[in-house]
Design goal:
Radius of gyration: 68 Å
Helix content: over 70%
Order of helices and strands: HHHH
Family: Belongs to the ATPase B chain family.
Subcellular location: Plastid, Chloroplast thylakoid membrane
Number of domains: 1
Strand content: under 5%
Shape: rod-shaped
Protein name: ATP synthase subunit b, chloroplastic
Organism: Morus indica
Structural class: mainly alpha
Number of strands: 0
Pfam families: ATP-synt_B
Oligomer: single chain
């Protein structure tokens, strides 16, 4: 088996290429062969290269068109979103205004209701005061009447004897009899 390092060691034994310079031997440099190969490559590779470039150009143009379409779609969506936003803002403002007017209306209703309730309470208070005054007046009248009656009975009992008592009863019976005859 050969040693792997043998080819590298053999490099040290190669002779040097000499000095650097231009080789003017046309057959040694082979420019004719190179120009023929380049000409064939250009002639036959021109179509392939132009097809590759055309395909690349078409893909780039298609990508640009797609990007433009996407941009226009995004702009349309943005405009729709802005339109919806304006609409929602208008509705929100309208709800806000309606809410404030509803609050004011409820406030006025509450004030009116409260004032009516206060008025009713004032009327109830006045009626209660009037009722209590009438009751107090009636109590005073009853006491005065009772005291007057007691005083009159006391006076009558002290001044009245049997004879006067019988005469008063007879007079009253006579008056009732006269009244009965008048009504018949």
């Amino acid at each position: 088996m050969k040693n792997v390092t043998d080819p590298f060691l053999s490099l040290s034994y190669w002779p040097s290429a000499g000095s650097f310079g231009f080789n003017t031997d046309i057959l040694a440099t082979n420019p004719i062969n190179l120009s023929v190969v380049l000409g064939v490559l250009i002639f036959f590779g021109k179509g392939v290269l132009s097809d590759l470039l055309d395909n690349r150009k078409q893909r780039i143009l298609k990508t640009i068109r797609n990007s433009e379409e996407l941009r226009e779609g995004a702009l349309e969506q943005l405009e729709k979103a802005r339109s919806r936003l304006r609409k929602v803002e208008k509705e929100a403002d309208q709800f806000r205004v309606n809410g404030y007017s509803e609050i004011e209306r409820e406030k006025l209703n509450l004030i009116n209701s409260t004032s009516k309730t206060l008025e009713q309470l004032e009327n109830y208070k006045n009626e209660t005061i009037h009722f209590e005054q009438q009751r107090a007046i009636n109590e005073v009248r009853q006491r005065v009447f009772q005291q007057a009656l007691e005083g009159a009975l006391g006076t009558l009992n002290s001044c009245l004897n049997n004879e006067l008592h019988l005469r008063t009863i007879s007079t009253n019976i006579g008056m009732f009899g006269t009244m009965k005859e008048i009504t018949d």
